[in-house]
Amino acid sequence: MSEQLITRMDELETRLAFQDDTIQALNDVVSRQQLELEKLQRALELLARRQADLAASMPGDAEDDQPPPHY
Known about the structure:
Layout: H1 3-57
Protein name: Protein SlyX homolog
InterPro entries: SlyX
Keywords: Coiled coil
């Protein structure tokens, strides 16, 4: 093989190695973000349930909170 071809192959192998590392790093970030997203979704659902329970336990109904018609 010619020296130029060997040099070119070495450069391509180096680029491939860096790309593999970059892809793995990006995959790790996406995986962590997915876990965080799922955690936040569960927290939001819990807060929504708590808010609904709190609203249901409040005295009076929603019509009592409306301003009089003359406003």
